[in-house]
Amino acid sequence: MRRPTLEAVAARAGVSRATASRVVNGQTTVAPHIRDAVLRAIDELGYVPNSAARSLVTQRTDSIALVVSEPGTRVFSEDPMFSTAIRSASMELEAVNKQVVLMMASSAKSHARLERYISGGHVDGVMLISMHGADPLPSALSRLRVPVVSYGRPAVPVEIPYVDNDNIGGAEAGVRHLVETGRRRIATIAGPQDMIGGQDRLTGYRNVLRDSDHRSIVAVGDFTRESGAVAMRQLLRDDPELDAVFVANDLMAVGALQSLRQAGRRVPDDVAVVGFDDIEAAKYTEPPLTTLRHPVAEQAAAMVRLLLNLFEGGASEPVILPTELVIRESA
Amino acid sequence: MRRPTLEAVAARAGVSRATASRVVNGQTTVAPHIRDAVLRAIDELGYVPNSAARSLVTQRTDSIALVVSEPGTRVFSEDPMFSTAIRSASMELEAVNKQVVLMMASSAKSHARLERYISGGHVDGVMLISMHGADPLPSALSRLRVPVVSYGRPAVPVEIPYVDNDNIGGAEAGVRHLVETGRRRIATIAGPQDMIGGQDRLTGYRNVLRDSDHRSIVAVGDFTRESGAVAMRQLLRDDPELDAVFVANDLMAVGALQSLRQAGRRVPDDVAVVGFDDIEAAKYTEPPLTTLRHPVAEQAAAMVRLLLNLFEGGASEPVILPTELVIRESA
DNA sequence: ATCTCTTGAGAGAGCGCTCTCTCCACCTTC
DNA sequence: GAAGGTGGAGAGAGCGCTCTCTCAAGAGAT
């Protein structure tokens, strides 16, 4: 009891396989009454083209690998940016009838597997999300002659089109807001320095405070709540006088708020806090978080467009999307 | 400049295509020195089997659809349960060399697309995550003669193996905790009643409070923070005397905590709050949330095992995993 | 010495589809 | 009316692989 083939459709419609194929693929050189007969046969038989056979001859698969190169398991599961990006990219690709093959690249073993898979021609292109600086994946993939685009600027200088948000500009805006509201000692909890986002947001912080006396100290987290809480405790220990902290993402800011609360500091009265990302949870912290919003879904959609553009042979310029300061109560 | 084929490997190793295929597929009926020659040729040529050609003949694709049937866009992006489940399932499938094809089923249009895709033989099996009660997908897919398993019990009675956590038992434990700690008027914020998880957790609440005078009122949310905040405001308006609330998931509990704060109620002194899920954020609320933990990753892994078992022809019983009360400060 | 059995390897038929090439019928043009 | 177009449809090759069938060679049994 096998699924019907194009052959069966053709037989039922009384035409050749070639003609049936033409109808299936929407070619216009088929007379209307024949096309109707074929369509009817397709409908009656419940015919669905066999994708394996099709891609065997067309050399296309119509599927795209969405590679999530994640550091710890924690981050991926907890950071809503990931799911938003995945979801948006997925919807966008669905709209153009491409499949999304989701691949996690955590270990070196999975890297090898990934490379083999991708070079195996299973996918037409690759979208890379959030890799670390040391990640060998971008360069490895770009060597594979497979179209690759990246969500976020790759850390190593490699010729891959990417979409990123203006991390530096956003961080600058956030820190500037702290300066303008009269804060004197502005610390920061930076993200992982092997991630571009982590680096750039720290750069933005430094750009504003360079040669000023507002600067305080830097602690480094890994974008998790827990690391934010730890970093905040350390900052309070190292500079008890600080009156503001710029945190490189909202998740860490949530942790920082908790540490501040536990240390008896009032936010924003004693210490102002600015986060980054504007995740949904930022509205629900105590107090609600002032943060920098960037369009994650749009960024993912832009990445998809970039990739599709690559398929068409177009050269793709990197895209940088703006960030926006959202002022709530924490600063 | 085409990728090397099995033919090329065979030629280089001086054997027939059939023998090369035997080596690639790990058959043992090949003499060691010949096997070595083939492996060397594979290595030198960088041969990777063409999956389209392979699945054309084997009628297998080695890929599994992970269908996320989500109601609103919000929930998926923000609820960390989704990403945890997806991640866990994905890792588990990778371990057995299966691909994960991610599919979002939001609109009716995407349902049609999905059915077509799945019945098109693109995937060997389907894993369904979180559908609504009215979701026609489970029955539709089970009709397609494609192996299907579900994350969470399907709302309609359909013969699909599933893995779920003990929603009723968990809710009972949570509400019982409130009773035992002396609460008198225990309200609840229920989940969407077209989702099994929403129904069952409400059932658990009712089971404990049936025929008791502890019972208060029921508000219904949709598992988002926002809906939790709204529902809490409504509960306070309708029963200002309530001294406890059992919230059907942590996300809504976060919203509820905010509303309680805004209403000037102290937690847990005035109102005790119990959530459900034990998401990471539950540790960082003010105060930290007492909630019911259930093993999301294990649940996803069990779902994968169920599906693999189905491939082997084994009959699969539903699996119910236990929940655990995690007592923090909110109750 | 003959026969059967096992082991190892090759030949070749497809899997279901696309796409080029070919051909036929009909229409235009001089 | 013959030559040249043109649109519509079929024939058939082949995409890269697996797998059955076949066969050769050697081992063991009679």
Helix content bin of chain A: 40-55%
CATH homologous superfamily grouping of the largest domain in chain A: Response regulator
Rg result of chain A? 25 Å
State the CATH architecture of the largest domain in chain A: 3-Layer(aba) Sandwich
Q: Give the N-to-C terminal Cα separation of chain A.
A: 67 Å
Residue ranges of chain A: pLDDT <50 for 5 or more in a row?
none
- Class from helix and strand fractions of chain A: alpha/beta
Order of helices and strands of chain A: HHHHEHHEHEHEEHEHEHEHEEHEE
Taken together, the total number of domains of chain A comes to: 3
- Numbering strands along the chain, what is their spatial order in the largest sheet of chain A? 2-1-3-4-5-11
Largest sheet of chain A: 6 strands, parallel
Largest interface: A-B, 55 and 55 residues
> Quaternary state, please?
homodimer
Q: In the CATH hierarchy, what is the class of the largest domain in chain A?
A: Alpha Beta
Number of strands of chain A: 12
Which fold name corresponds to the CATH topology of the largest domain in chain A?
A: Rossmann fold
Shape of chain A: elongated
